[in-house]
Design goal:
Elements: E1 6-10, H1 20-29, E2 34-37, H2 41-44, H3 53-70, E3 76-81, H4 83-94, E4 100-104, H5 119-123, E5 128-133, H6 141-150, E6 155-160, H7 171-177, H8 181-199
Parallel strand pairs: 1-2, 1-3, 3-4, 4-5, 5-6
C-alpha cells in the first residue's frame, strides 16, 4: 500500500482528469500519498459548461465517498485545480473530518468578473494551502492576502514566481531568472509535502 494520506484530486472547469496537466500533477502527488482522480458529471456527459454549484458539490462529495471506501483509514486531503479546489473547499466545510485542502490556482475572482469567491474560505475550519502564480489574474495575491488575514482556518501560501493560473512560467521570464518549469513544479510539490506533513500525517 502506498504510504501517506488519501489525496482526492479534482480537475478544473476546462479540462478532464485525463488532461496532460492533471496527469503530470497526479504523478507528482503520488509520491506523497494515494491519489484518486475523478471527473464531474458534466465532463463525463461530454459537456463543456460546468454544472450548477450544488451539482458540482454533490459530485465531489460522491467521489470522496468512493475514494474513502477504496482506501479506508487514511487521512483525507482534497486537492483541486482551480474550480476543483474551490468546490473542494465547499465539501470540506461540510465534512470536518477532511484533514487538509490543497488549492492549485484558487479562482478567487470569477472568470466573467464579480465579487471575490471568499465566503467559503472565511467559513472554513480545515487547513488549506494555496499554490498560486504571480501572473494568475483569477487570484491577485494582494486580494488573497486580505482574505487570508480574515480566515479562521489555518492557511499557507506557496507562490510560483512568474506562474499563471496553470502555474506555468513564461519562457522568456523564466530563462531570464534562470528557473525551469521543472524546478518551479518541484518547489511547489515540496511545499505541498511540507504542508501535508504538518496537517495530514497518519
Amino acid at each position: 500500500m502506498t504510504p501517506g494520506p488519501l489525496l482526492l484530486f479534482a480537475p478544473g472547469a476546462g479540462a478532464a482528469s485525463t488532461s496532460a496537466w492533471m496527469r503530470a500533477w497526479a504523478a507528482r502527488l503520488a509520491d506523497l500519498g494515494a491519489v484518486a482522480t475523478f471527473d464531474y458529471a458534466y465532463r463525463l456527459a461530454g459537456r463543456k459548461l460546468p454544472d450548477r454549484h450544488d451539482a458540482l458539490v454533490a459530485a465531489h462529495r460522491d467521489a470522496l465517498a468512493r475514494a474513502r471506501a477504496a482506501a479506508p483509514g487514511r487521512p483525507v486531503v482534497l486537492v483541486g485545480k482551480s474550480m476543483g479546489g474551490r468546490i473542494g473547499c465547499h465539501v470540506a466545510h461540510e465534512a470536518p473530518d477532511v484533514a487538509a485542502l490543497v488549492c492549485l490556482g484558487y479562482p478567487l475572482r470569477p472568470v466573467g468578473g464579480g465579487p471575490p469567491r471568499d465566503a467559503v474560505l472565511l467559513a472554513l475550519r480545515t487547513p488549506v494551502l494555496f499554490v498560486q502564480g504571480t501572473r494568475d489574474r483569477l487570484c491577485p495575491l494582494d486580494e488573497l492576502a486580505r482574505v487570508r488575514a480574515r480566515m479562521a482556518a489555518p492557511s499557507a501560501l506557496h507562490v510560483v514566481e512568474g506562474g499563471d493560473h496553470d502555474l506555468a512560467l513564461a519562457r522568456r521570464d523564466a530563462a531570464a531568472r534562470g528557473v525551469t518549469q521543472a524546478q518551479a513544479d518541484a518547489a511547489a510539490l515540496a511545499a505541498v509535502a511540507a504542508f501535508l506533513r504538518a496537517h495530514a500525517a497518519r
